[in-house]
Amino acid sequence: MGEDSSGPLHGVLVADFSRILAGPYATMLLADLGADVVKVEAPGGDDTRTWQPPVRDGVSTYYLGVNRNKRSLVLDLADPDDAVLARRLAARADVLIQNFRPGALRRFGLDHDTVTAANPRLVYASISGFGAAGGADLPGYDLMVQAASGLMSLTGAADGPPYKAGVAVFDVIAGLHAAVGILAALHHRAATGVGQHVEVDLLTSALSGLANHASAHVAAGVVPHRMGNAHPSIVPYEPLPTADGELVVIGGNDGQFRTLCEVLGLPGLPDDPRFRRNRDRTAHRDALRPLLVAALARRTSAEWFRELRAAGVPCSPINTVADGVALAEGLGLDPVVTVGGVPGVRHPIRLSATPARHDLPPPGLDEHGVELRAWLAG
Predict the structure, then answer these.
(1) Under CATH, what is the fold of the domain 13-210+335-377?
(2) Which keywords does this Swiss-Prot/TrEMBL entry list (predicted)?
């Protein structure tokens, strides 16, 4: 990125052979933190360049969303000369990240064992869909993992069909896991001088991300099921109808439930034996819900939001994405940054001494190819 670059990862060179979402999301996070990320693309470019609409100035917003602060270099790995340049980049890099099918890079001399034999300090990160053992032949698309992991069995109405989440949630979680693993490996390398192999697969990331649901099964033998917007362990914890729509209302503990009831004009409800403790409310959710709905029907969602927020009761209107961005702006979170005329979501981590940077817009295909080829040829 040049001598003026800054950030806690300044000086870390990342050879990014990944594409689509999980890998590019991980490397954008690293780039925002100061790493010099060289995005290696096939001649046709990252698949997400063609995933449109929507677009901004003819460029896919999917691509724009995860490729800030990188430099683009087109290399055709099937071309012997380009393969040499790719191996030179790997030999100079501190981190290499790739999400090809397991074993696919071996024929280009870019697999972990070959690359680290020449560069033992390299942190080599592999992202796959289902691991390198029994699932090596399965492509790693987020929707497949949502289905395979059990997430879709948890999403949707209790008496309706399974649904996917509205975002590629496990690609994002796997990208986060990859970034954490890379940072851990870099810390280890600082102490030992030796890199290591960081392996992340979407299915294991998904099971980790299922959190309490996965724990319910592995620790208690319970198989979770769809409950619509209800929560298996907390009541209330769902959208409830008001006079003009719905409002997410949460009684995360007994104190919050008592305050909720006071605001709703139901002061005796928390002393009812059916609702006194959370486990009681969970057991008698079908009796409790109509009482809360009847009280909420007296006012609009906006009116209840103001009153419940003032009382410290967790609640929220059900926003659009536009509303969510506007809310973050109104709360002073400054969620949007514009880099080179391209708006994007600000890096989510705030560091007091070494803040994230937002220097380069997402690169055009092979935008930095001339300078990077000259550097690799030297």
Answers:
(1) Rossmann fold (3.40.50)
(2) Transferase
Contacts 24+ apart (CB under 8 A), 298-304: 298/243, 299/242, 299/243, 300/242, 300/243, 300/244, 300/245, 301/242, 301/243, 301/244, 301/245, 301/246, 301/247, 304/242, 304/247
Domain 237-327 has CATH 3.30.1540.10: yes
Q: What is the pLDDT of residue 5?
A: 59
Question: Which secondary structure element, helix H or strand E, spans residue 290, and what is its range?
Answer: helix 285-296
152-207 pLDDT per residue, tens: 999 999 999 999 999 999 999 999 999 999 999 999 999 999 999 999 999 999 99
For the chain, domain boundaries: 13-210+335-377, 237-327
pTM for the model stands at 0.94
Max alpha carbon distance in the chain (Å)? 79
Per-residue pLDDT band for 3 (boundaries 50, 70, 90) equals very low
Q: Is residue 171 annotated as a catalytic residue, yes or no?
A: yes
The 3-state secondary structure of 121-179, one letter per residue: CCEEEEEECCCCCCCCCCCCCHHHHHHHHCHHHHCCCCCCCCCCCCCCHHHHHHHHHHH
Q: Which of 171, 271, 323, 334 is catalytic?
A: 171
Confirm whether 13-210+335-377 and 237-327 share one CATH topology.
no
For the stretch 223-247, pLDDT in tens is 999 999 999 999 999 999 999 999 9
Backbone angles phi, psi at 32, to 5 degrees: -60, -30
* pLDDT, tens only, 130-148: 999 999 999 999 999 999 9
In angstroms, what CA-CA distances link 248 with 152, 233, 241, 244, 263? 22, 16, 9, 13, 15
Determine the distance from the C-alpha atom of residue 174 to the mean position of all C-alpha atoms in its chain, rounded to a whole number.
7
The rounded distance, in Å, linking the Cα atoms of 21 and 66 is: 7
